[in-house]
Amino acid sequence: MAEELINKITDISETLLIPLYARAIESQTEKPILIDKKAVEITQELNKFFLKSDSKLHKALLKGQVRRRLRKKLNVTLALRTRKFDRYCIDFLDKNPDGILVELGCGLSTRFPRIDNNTLTLYDLDFPEVIDIKQLFFKETDRYHFIRSSVVDFKWMEHIRNQNKKILFIAEGLFMYLHEDDVKNLILTLQKNFPGCELVCEVSNVYVVKLLKRKIWKKKFQRDYHFGKDVTLQFGIKDGKDIEKWNEGITFLDEWTFFDDTENKLGWMNFLGRFEKMKKAQWVVHYQLN
Ligand SMILES: C[S@@+](CC[C@H](N)C(=O)[O-])C[C@H]1O[C@@H](n2cnc3c(N)ncnc32)[C@H](O)[C@@H]1O
Fold it and tell me: pTM higher than 0.85, yes or no?
């Protein structure tokens, strides 16, 4: 079943496998950055199918090493990213105990079991074919909901309107795959429909996006990660405050880079954090939308 469904997803959706495996692999290392039993359980199921698969990505995931030259560092960076998103969610719930979390482009995110405090309400949104896979591993409940929709088809917002609760939207590994107009419309519509909400999103730097649009770099990027031909980065910003300029009422709150936690497991990569351009090649930004 999982096999058929995984074969149906688009190149872009297939990228969800990389953070899932990163969390599972990192969980099983010494002094793990995070512990994610559900990701381990899901990958063990998927491995049964990947063992028979011809896909280069599936084979690399089985070895636990997607990008050869980065070796296991990719798993470390993705685990750090997820831990930071978890912390944003936990901080938000501390301040807003009856607040709602909405995870845009959730893929096979395992955040609900990781941070559930027995009162958490979380909506996971992704394309219908991704939610079909998700339903093999998770049950919807009165606190954990799935929304089967593209994030840019704004009808999905009806599912969470009129709740009179504070909302935190999170977008981990999503915005870089959307076009700038779509990201802009999405943020402005969130602001209009949910005034006072917060958004934590991962963003790419516009210089990286421009570079990867060049044919030779695009091919290299796809080859390095074993991505399909439709995977390209589309959207980037120069500075976390750029998005404030899109409308009055959008406030930059803070930001986080992969190097901010001074994690020993990053090893030589920590050196890159000394250079502003490398530090903010891809990073996480937190906004308030009033
Ligand atoms: C790199 S994965 C990240 C998954 C998850 N957030 C995580 O970190 O494990 C990107 C996800 O975004 C989803 N995605 C891409 N474009 C989307 C869109 N227009 N609407 C909804 N989801 C989208 C893909 O299906 C995929 O699940």
Answer: yes
The dihedral formed by the CA atoms of 187, 192, 196 and 197, expressed in degrees to the nearest 10: -40
Q: Assess whether the C-beta atom of 15 lies below 6 angstroms from ligand 1.
A: yes
Domains within the chain, CATH numbers bracketed: 2-73 (no CATH), 96-289 (3.40.50.150)
Residue 107, by phi and psi: left (phi above 0), alpha (psi -120 to 50) or beta? left
Q: What is the mean pLDDT of residues 174-189?
A: 98
Nearest CA-CA partner of 46 in 6, 105, 106? 6
Residue 57 above 60 pLDDT? yes
Write the pLDDT tens digit of every residue in 23-55. 999 999 999 999 999 999 999 999 999 999 999
Q: Which residues of 105-118 are buried (b: 16+ CB within 10 A; e: fewer)?
A: bbbbbbbbebbeee
Are the C-beta atoms of 289 and 196 separated by less than 8 Å? yes
pLDDT band at 65 (very low <50, low <70, confident <90, very high): confident
Probe target for ligand 1 pocket from 147, 177, 204, with the most ligand atoms within 8 Å of CB: 177
Q: Are strands 282-289 and 197-205 parallel, antiparallel or unpaired?
A: antiparallel
Handedness of CA 23, 29, 35, 38 (dihedral sign): positive
